[in-house]
Specification:
Length: 182
């Protein structure tokens, strides 16, 4: 009986690991897709401002996705001019810090060279923020553990009831057999 429960617990741990691994891969892919979309949108608005060398507008455009929490870092390197950078402060996390290491989401740096009509207007680089995806994985994991705990309690309770009734039947059968032997 206890061996069965240990096997069941081991199967649960393996299933949880596999489910989190799949969710981590999906979150990493979604993070990359979101970053590519952010880079495409940011490239468009930064290119327009870079053509007229409006560095103040470029800085404002870089700050928007960083302040929204979509990017950790965005920077623009013009062909001749100052490096413009926007960096996020520590994002609000709905999970403990140790979970960042467990989630281990890849943080790609996506880059785009701004060239229009054969003219080079600079280089744009961004790094996406994993916060939303780490929070998603945290909530998914905690719900999975909660459901598993409830399932184990129910299975334990059902096993207890089955054994309780089986033992009563065993007692009755033993008493009947003992009475028959007298």
């Amino acid at each position: 009986m206890s061996v069965g429960l240990i096997i069941l617990l081991g199967a649960f741990v393996l299933a949880a690991h596999q489910a989190m691994s799949i969710a981590r891969q999906d979150a990493g892919l979604a993070l990359r897709i979101q970053a590519a979309a952010q880079l495409a949108a940011l490239s468009q608005v930064v290119t327009d401002a870079a053509i007229v060398q409006d560095y103040r507008a470029i800085q404002a455009h870089l700050k928007i996705p960083v302040e929204q929490g979509n990017l950790l870092r965005a920077e623009y390197r013009p062909p001749n001019g100052p490096l413009l950078r926007a960096e996020a402060s520590l994002p609000h996390a709905e999970h403990p810090e140790w979970f960042d290491l467990l989630a281990n989401l890849p943080l790609p740096v996506l880059q785009h060279t701004l060239v229009v009509g054969g003219n080079y207007y600079g280089h744009l680089a961004i790094q996406p923020s994993p916060s939303a995806y780490e929070n998603f994985l945290w909530h998914l994991g905690t719900r999975f553990v909660l459901i598993a705990v409830i399932a184990f309690v129910l299975v334990g309770w059902l096993i207890h009831l089955l054994l309780k009734f089986s033992l009563k039947d065993l007692d009755r059968s033993a008493a009947t057999l003992a009475a028959a032997c007298k």
